[in-house]
Write a structure and sequence with these properties.
The chain is α+β, with helices and mostly antiparallel strands. The protein has eleven helices and 22 strands.
């Protein structure tokens, strides 16, 4: 075997997965058809689970720096005399172009408790995420081969022979992280059902003449939806005239100007284009994320409209869930059925994201019925309860896996507890192992394989009644007191 795992695609999902595997000693290589990172404007924010994933690998300071850079750029877009922007205490965002305002958000909601410093990071672009992960991969010694396109492969019971435009490679596993038009998915024959597109969307960073006449933020018009800002020159349009005739054709200033005028009704002129992309609301999902030795993650496994920035974060979540399970499988230490839990746990969340984005398209339509429904949702969001609910959904803090056990923490992202020695729970997950945190209620003699999970004994003054936590490498709580600890350890980590 040339490698244990070959990953096709060096976007955020592929890079995150490569880092997770490299951290656990897996021989992994990333193949990327593009010679350089894609500068095209994409997602502009990260959710709480994504920030937590970075925190648990020691990367949160890089995200904090990136957010500061983003806010400094956004400051330049403020009108004269406006007060300076400050990061909101939690990420809010929008739903179908209906903006959620920070002053209606209830920060005391229990869903946001114990998120730690990761809960204060959100305004980070996809390009910044990719740059952080590329640097992390390099530090781990993970090779990323750019300008190498996967052209096909042959899979058998022992592994996968991957063909590229530079020759063949052999690995035990192949993971397609190669986007919505994934070559890996198509060659492997994954079913990819869903709903067809009905919109043409544009997002771009441009130079405008007459841009001061555009509304700031999200705007609803009789013909569609558009957005202006928060960074200088950023525009987004949504037109309900069907998908584009050719998604791959070059995007011109004339095309962007025509779309912006049609939706906004303002005679603006696009004088230069710095970056631009088209998108649709094509919504599809693979019925399984694994066929034999081939797996999918990120947009290769699910596509949808980009509203709410869910795609970037959904892919990062896929990678963090899959990484430790595939690593254990490669090393021959995976309990029976561990790799199958990847599809079982991530597929329902992917299906929810597809429906979440479909609902936003329904609210954006310009017909009278959709606009009437939009008014109802606007009234709901204009309440503290409504804003808080939508913020919980967008930020990802509601996620919970269906794991055995009655404790409310089981299946949720682990709280970032501050321990008596001054460390945080996230500090003990940097090496990609799991964690058995004994806060005084873990009986002696529990057999934890120390190559897969570490035992930490401490106290937590803010949670004196919590006996302890068993935390998987992806940060999910598998046990939180009572019976079932031995079963949880063997279920997720096997035996020593």
């Amino acid at each position: 075997m040339d490698f244990d795992v070959i990953i096709s695609g060096a976007g955020p999902t592929g890079l995150m997965l490569a880092c997770e595997l490299g951290l656990r000693g897996v021989r992994v290589v990333v193949l990327e058809r593009l010679a350089e990172p894609d500068p095209t404007i994409k997602a502009g924010s990260v959710t709480v689970p994504t920030a937590e994933a970075f925190d648990r690998r020691g990367l949160l300071p890089r995200l904090v720096d990136a957010q500061r850079e983003s806010f400094e750029l956004a400051q330049r877009f403020l009108p004269a005399g406006a007060p300076p922007m400050t990061p909101p205490p939690k990420f809010a965002g929008h739903f179908g172009g209906i903006r959620l305002t920070a002053d209606l958000f209830d920060a005391t909601d229990p869903a946001f408790a114990d998120r730690g410093p990761a809960g204060d990071v959100g305004f980070v672009s996809q390009q910044q995420v990719e740059a952080i992960l590329a640097e992390h991969a390099a530090a781990l010694g993970v090779p990323v081969r750019r300008g190498v396109a996967v052209t096909g492969f042959d899979a058998d019971d022992a592994g996968v022979t991957v063909g590229t435009d530079r020759g063949e490679l052999r690995a035990a596993w192949l993971v397609g992280c190669d986007g919505g038009r994934s070559t890996v998915r198509k060659v492997a024959g994954f079913d990819f059902p869903g709903t067809p597109p009905e919109i043409t969307g544009h997002q771009a960073v441009v130079e405008l003449r007459g841009g001061e006449r555009l509304g700031r933020g999200w705007q609803t018009t009789p013909t569609g939806i558009y957005a202006h800002g928060p960074v200088p020159g950023r525009v987004l349009t949504v037109e309900f005239d069907g998908p584009p005739a050719d998604r791959d054709a070059p995007i011109t200033a004339e095309e962007l100007e025509k779309s912006l005028r049609a939706v906004s009704g303002v005679d603006v002129e696009v004088t230069a284009v710095h970056t631009a992309t088209r998108f649709t609301d094509n919504a599809r999902q693979a019925t399984t994320y694994r066929l034999g030795r081939v797996l999918l993650a990120g947009d290769a496994a699910h596509v949808h409209s980009p509203f709410g920035g869910q795609g970037l974060n959904l892919g990062i979540g896929d990678a963090v869930n899959l990484g430790w399970k595939l690593a254990a499988t490669v090393h021959g230490r995976a309990p029976d059925g561990l790799l199958d839990t990847y599809t079982a746990e991530r597929h329902p969340l992917g299906a929810w994201v597809l429906d979440w984005t479909r609902a936003q398209i329904a609210l954006m339509r310009p017909d009278p019925h959709a606009r009437a429904l939009r008014g109802v949702v606007e009234d709901l969001i204009a309440t503290t309860t409504g804003t808080t609910h939508f913020t919980k959904m967008i930020s990802g803090v509601w996620h919970r896996l269906d794991l055995p056990g009655d404790h409310p923490l089981i299946g949720r992202s682990a709280p970032d507890l501050v321990l008596s020695d001054g460390s945080r729970l996230a500090d003990h997950l940097h090496d990609g192992r799991g964690l058995l945190l004994d806060l005084g209620g873990v009986r002696s003699g529990v057999d934890v394989p120390d190559d897969r999970a570490r035992l930490v004994t401490a106290t937590c003054p803010t949670h004196p009644d919590l006996p302890g936590l068993l935390v998987r490498p992806d940060g999910v709580v598998a046990w939180a007191g009572g019976d079932g600890l031995d079963t949880a350890v063997t279920t997720w980590f096997g035996t020593a």
